Amino acid sequence: MAVETSTAGLDAAAIRADFPVLAEQVHERPLVYLDNAATSQKPRAVIEALQTYYETYNANIHRGLHALSERATAEYEAARAGVARFINARHAHEVIFTRGTTEAINLVARGWGDENVGEGDEILLTEMEHHSNLVPWQMLAKRRGAALRYIPMDVDGRIDLEGYARQFGPRTRLVTITQMSNVLGTITPAAEVVRVAHEHGVPVLLDAAQSIPHLPVDVQALDADFVAFSGHKMLGPTGIGVLYGRESLLDAMEPLLGGGSMIRVVELHRSSWTGLPDKLEGGTPNIAGAIGLGAAVEYLAAVGMPGVARHEHNLTEYALAQLSDLEGVRVFGPMDAEDRGGVISFYVGDIHPHDVGTLLDADGIAVRAGHHCAQPLMRKLGVPATVRASMYLYNTADEVDCLVGGIARAKAFFA
Ligand code: PMP
Description:
Blueprint (H helix, E strand, L loop, with lengths): L11 H6 L7 E2 L2 E2 L1 E2 L10 H14 L9 H20 L8 E4 L2 H16 L5 E4 L9 H10 L2 E4 L10 H6 L5 E7 L11 H10 L4 E4 L11 H4 L3 E5 L10 E5 L1 H6 L10 E4 L4 E3 L13 H17 L1 H21 L3 E3 L11 E6 L4 H10 L2 E2 L1 E3 L4 H7 L4 E5 L6 H18 L1
Parallel strand pairs: 3-15, 5-6, 5-7, 7-8, 8-9
Antiparallel strand pairs: 1-2, 4-10, 9-10, 11-12, 13-14, 14-17, 16-17
Bound molecules: 4'-deoxy-4'-aminopyridoxal-5'-phosphate.
The site of 4'-deoxy-4'-aminopyridoxal-5'-phosphate (PMP) has 15 residues, from α4.
């Protein structure tokens, strides 16, 4: 092991003990879980929060006058307040619970986009967006007769800021951009992107699905207008995510889902909406999921996000050095760990990524192989797919060594 991964005061061994699944064996080998960009594992605190809810106070929220419903409502709203603190939102009601990043972005595309984007208007985004920050805008553009324009960037996902600034015109309505690429790991200059957009009076949506789980993110410091992220990638359950929005923008937005909980008065031919956040959360929400996400952000805050980021930075630096020493391995994205997070995509010789993934799995190493829901980026990289290893707070340098050993074995297998 060539790096000390606990220099940041983050005790990976103690953290690992909080995650039951990390003790599992896969194909009779200890699990090496490096598929965190797809979804993270869950600490006992999150699993127990779900269990406690179902075992001791399961009830629907808001409507009941009974004790269980009051407790469920209080815990659901406490989770919202916890998430708001975690991202430093000004108000808890600026946190809207959704199913995940995908639903959060679709909510903006419908609820904000349909009202504010019209014929001939333009939306700026990048070629490295995840399909969930691309397809909803294509759908909006089709509905409204608008157009998508792509911010110039290099093959490592580095934005050309001068070219970006030149793209603004009278028809620019929105900038929507990932804060960290789920393929290249590239961290975009989000604060600068927002600053330039605001000079032109244009709001910015940040796809923070890969950033909020791994970096300290302060939505007020970034001055972002909308921020979308998923609970399951940040130690929380699946089926819960967040749309953060500036209060004034959310207030003016139309709901995506009409139904229970989001109304003030319903008449036979018209209805009026209630206030934030309920207006944008029609129907019974994922109560358990929100409570689980509340436990997840509490866990991450207790560990400390600066420490999480430093730990992953050390591991990424180590992994990049190890991988670039392996002949025939082509790593995508910036080679400087300062510019990226712990998502590393690579290609091994001319072996298909699926074959590499299958061989690594036989060694108990979980990675992802595919287009990672970023087909336009794959085309730009000139590959059909990549192998992707992605880290989190519980990964260790020993696991990076396992990955490198596994790749070397895959190379030998196909030699
Ligand atoms: N954006 C990015 C950058 C992602 O990595 C992902 C998940 N892979 C998403 C959006 C979509 O998240 P979800 O599937 O949880 O809605």
